[in-house]
Design goal:
Blueprint lengths: L1 E5 L4 H12 L3 E5 L9 H13 L4 E5 L6 H6 L1 H22 L2 E7 L22 H16 L3 E6 L2 E2 L6 H11 L3 E4 L3 E2 L2 E2 H12 L5 E4 L6 E2 H11 L7 E4 L19 H5 L8 H17 L1
Parallel strand pairs: 1-2, 1-3, 3-4, 4-5, 5-10, 6-9, 7-12
Antiparallel strand pairs: 8-11
Helix pairs in contact: 1-7, 2-4, 4-5, 6-8, 8-10
Length: 290
C-alpha cells in the first residue's frame, strides 16, 4: 500500500506517518509548504503524480485550520483551508482514482446531546470553526465517492501543542488549577487514531465515521488523570464552569461520538481513553511533559 499524507508535520500526521511506515506502507509526507491545498492545479498535479507511481494509493488529509478562536475573527481564511482545500483534494483524488481519508471534528454538532452522536445525527455547528469543517465534509462527500470522512475529538499526542501538554506544564507551574467541568467528550490519543485510520482505509467501506478513544470525561476529569500520570495530587485540580472562562468561540457542552459505524465495518473499538492516556505517558511521556 502507498499513502500520501497531506499536512504532514502536525501532531496527527506525525503519528500517522510512523504507524503507516511501521506497517510497511510506502509513505510520502507533504507539508503545507510542499502543497497548498487551496490551489487546485497544485493539488491535481501532486495527487496524479503520486497515483501514477503505483497502485493501491490512499491520500490522508491532515491539513486544517485548527485555531478555534482564531476562526471567529477570520472565518474566510478558515473556510479556505477547511472547506475549499478538502474540496480540491477530493476532486483531485476522484480524478486520479485514489481513496481519500479526510479528518473532521465533533464541532460539526451543536453539542447539546445527552447520548453519543451517531454519524447520521443532525449537525448544527455553533462556531466558525465548526461551520468550516462541516463545509469541508460536504465538499469531500460531493466530489469524492471513494472517501472516508472521519470525525474525532479532544486529540492529543507527542507532537504539537495540545491540552495534555498544557496541563502537564501547568502542573509544574501552579499549586492549583481550575478546569472546566461542564464540557464532556472523549480524549483521544493521536497514535490510537492513526492506527484506526489505517485499518479503516483498508476496508473500502467508504462513508462517514466517528473515531475516538472510548468512554468519556470532562476537561477537569482529564486534567486529574494527567496529574495522576505525573505522580501529582489530582485534588489540586478544582472544577469550574464554561462561563468562568469565556472564549471567543463557543465550545460544545457534549462531544461524545458513537463508534458504532466504525465497528460495523470491522474496525475494532478504540481502547478506553484512560488506558490510552496511561499508554501515551508510558510511550512518550517526555514529549508530553515538554
Amino acid at each position: 500500500m502507498r499513502a500520501l499524507i497531506v499536512g504532514s508535520g502536525g501532531m496527527l500526521a506525525r503519528d500517522l506517518e510512523d504507524v503507516l511506515v511501521t506497517a510497511g506502507y510506502d509513505v510520502r509526507p507533504l507539508t503545507v509548504g510542499d502543497l497548498d491545498i487551496t490551489a487546485p492545479a497544485a493539488v491535481d498535479a501532486a495527487v496524479s503524480d503520486w497515483a501514477a507511481a503505483g497502485a493501491d494509493s490512499v491520500v490522508f488529509n491532515c491539513a486544517a485550520y485548527t485555531n478555534v478562536d482564531g476562526a471567529e475573527a477570520d472565518e474566510q481564511r478558515a473556510h479556505l483551508i477547511n472547506a475549499v482545500g478538502p474540496g480540491n483534494l477530493a476532486a483531485g483524488c476522484a480524478a486520479a482514482g485514489v481513496d481519500l481519508v479526510h479528518i473532521s471534528t465533533d464541532y460539526v454538532f451543536a453539542g447539546d446531546a445527552t447520548s453519543p452522536y451517531d454519524v447520521d445525527a443532525p449537525t448544527g455547528p455553533r462556531s466558525a470553526y465548526g461551520r468550516t469543517k462541516l463545509a469541508g465534509e460536504e465538499a469531500v462527500r460531493e466530489r469524492a465517492p471513494r472517501s472516508y470522512v472521519v470525525r474525532t475529538a479532544w486529540l492529543y499526542g507527542a507532537g504539537g501543542n495540545n491540552f495534555v501538554k498544557t496541563m502537564a506544564r501547568l502542573e509544574r507551574e501552579r499549586e492549583s488549577l481550575s478546569v472546566v467541568d461542564d464540557q464532556r467528550g472523549s480524549p483521544t490519543w493521536s497514535r490510537d487514531l492513526s492506527t484506526a485510520l489505517m485499518t479503516l482505509a483498508q476496508t473500502r467501506a467508504y462513508g462517514t465515521y466517528h473515531c475516538t478513544n472510548s468512554g468519556d470525561t470532562t476537561w477537569c476529569g482529564l486534567t486529574r488523570a494527567i496529574f495522576e500520570e505525573l505522580g501529582a495530587d489530582p485534588a489540586r485540580v478544582t472544577p469550574c464552569t464554561t462561563a468562568d472562562f469565556p472564549r471567543p468561540a463557543p465550545r460544545p457542552a457534549y462531544s461524545v461520538l458513537s463508534g458504532a459505524a466504525l465497528e460495523a465495518v470491522g474496525v475494532p473499538a478504540m481502547r478506553p481513553w484512560r488506558d490510552a492516556l496511561a499508554a501515551a505517558f508510558a510511550q512518550c511521556g517526555d514529549a508530553l511533559r515538554a
